[in-house]
């Protein structure tokens, strides 16, 4: 980059920049930045600054639009103007924090107020930083990169605390957190969510004939299959004993019915101590508008479907239309 760019309040449109000698930042690839600013020229300028670096940028014109966009497509970081009529950036930040996945999205506040640092100390919002206008583009990039790096570090710690020690999948804590978020998204926006219960067949036989170390080996092998077949947005967890759970966001029951096939096919290829540990799978979904069903009731339906699959001989899938 040839030099700092000043971005801030000005009577004319913000300056533009030429990047002939600017290399994309590898860490930016695929990272989504949500810019919430009621000045369309500034929002456009920030998008022009950030996209050539490798960030995917979405611009919201007001706080309400910003909260909606943060809910439907969780950004990796929010750049948020403090002066944001009809509300202000602090109220918008609090509302973003209340969205299903908004608890830990880093927020970078922008403002030309001289007392911004003082005001920030009075606001009880975690994972935030602030940058006064006018600011240099190099400084903006540094703040964004720092915010993303700190968020990634927090995510690593969170995953470690929510990991099943035996299989490496999520634990019950992670499942409950994810299910709460997806149920809230369904209740507010009608976004469908499906839940798959996977019950390992013949685990008791493996344990009885070859010991629990062999049984653990079988659980890890099935977990590897689930991990390989799950999408990036899916959340797979060990429910305990011989059961696994997979949360499928934005997925109706017919589409959820495709998930078990590769899992069962891959499971059939396993042979552990002379036993093929097949799986019985049940699936249920929340997709009917206006449904008041709870997350626990959804789990009960999916679990009942898996029980029917096992009762009917195992190595099969049952879908609950619910």
Provide structural commentary.
This protein is α/β, with parallel strands linked by helices. It folds into 2 domains: 6-161, 3-Layer(aba) Sandwich (Rossmann fold); 172-319, Reverse transcriptase/Diguanylate cyclase domain (Alpha-Beta Plaits), CATH 3.30.70.270. Helix content is 42%, strand content 19%. The protein is built from 11 helices and 12 strands. It has helices at residues 40-50, 63-72, 89-97, 116-121, 137-161, 172-189, 203-210, 212-229, 253-256, 260-268, 295-311; strands at residues 6-7, 32-36, 56-60, 77-81, 107-111, 128-132, 135-136, 193-200, 235-240, 243-249, 279-286, 317-319. The strands form 3 sheets. It has a 5-stranded parallel sheet, sandwiched between helices. A 5-stranded mixed sheet has the order 9-10-8-11-12, with helices on both faces. The protein has a two-stranded antiparallel ribbon with strand order 1-7. The termini are far apart. Mean pLDDT is 83; it is low at 1-25.
Low-confidence stretches: 1-25
**In angstroms, what is the radius of gyration?**
24 Å
Task: Give me the CATH architecture of the largest domain, please.
Answer: 3-Layer(aba) Sandwich
How do the helices and strands follow one another from N- to C-terminus?
Answer: EEHEHEHEHEEHHEHHEEHHEHE
Strand line-up of the largest beta sheet:
3-2-4-5-6
- The portion of residues forming beta strands comes to 15-25%
Helix content: 40-55%
How far is it from the N-terminal to the C-terminal residue, by CA? 57 Å
Arithmetic mean pLDDT: 83
Overall body shape = elongated
């Amino acid at each position: 980059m040839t030099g700092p760019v000043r971005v801030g309040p000005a009577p004319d449109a913000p300056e533009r920049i030429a990047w002939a000698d600017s290399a994309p930042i590898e860490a930016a690839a695929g990272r989504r930045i949500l810019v919430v600013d009621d000045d369309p020229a500034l929002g456009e300028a920030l998008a022009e600054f950030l996209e050539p670096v490798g960030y995917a940028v979405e611009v919201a014109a007001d706080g309400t639009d910003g909260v909606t966009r943060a809910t439907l497509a969780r950004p990796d970081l929010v750049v948020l103007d403090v002066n944001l009529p009809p509300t202000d950036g602090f109220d918008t930040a609090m509302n973003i924090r209340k969205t299903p996945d908004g608890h830990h999205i880093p927020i970078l506040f922008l403002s030309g107020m001289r007392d911004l640092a003082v005001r920030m100390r009075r606001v009880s919002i975690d994972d935030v930083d602030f940058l006064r206008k006018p600011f240099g583009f190099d400084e903006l990039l540094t703040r964004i990169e720092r915010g993303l790096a700190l968020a990634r570090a927090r995510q690593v710690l969170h995953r470690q605390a929510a990991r099943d020690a035996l299989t490496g999948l999520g634990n019950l804590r992670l499942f409950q957190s994810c299910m709460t978020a997806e149920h809230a998204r369904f209740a507010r926006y009608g976004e469908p969510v499906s839940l798959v219960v996977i019950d390992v067949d013949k685990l008791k036989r493996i344990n009885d004939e070859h010991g629990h170390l062999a049984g653990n080996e079988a659980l890890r092998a099935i977990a590897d299959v689930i991990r390989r077949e799950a999408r990036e947005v899916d959340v797979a967890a060990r429910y305990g004993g011989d059961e696994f759970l997979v949360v499928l966001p934005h997925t109706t029951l017919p589409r959820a019915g495709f998930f078990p096939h590769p899992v069962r096919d891959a499971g059939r290829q396993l042979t552990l101590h002379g036993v093929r540990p097949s799986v019985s799978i049940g699936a249920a979904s929340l997709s009917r508008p206006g449904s008041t069903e709870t997350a626990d009731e959804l789990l009960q339906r999916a679990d009942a479907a898996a029980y029917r699959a096992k009762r009917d001989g195992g190595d099969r899938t049952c879908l609950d239309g619910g």
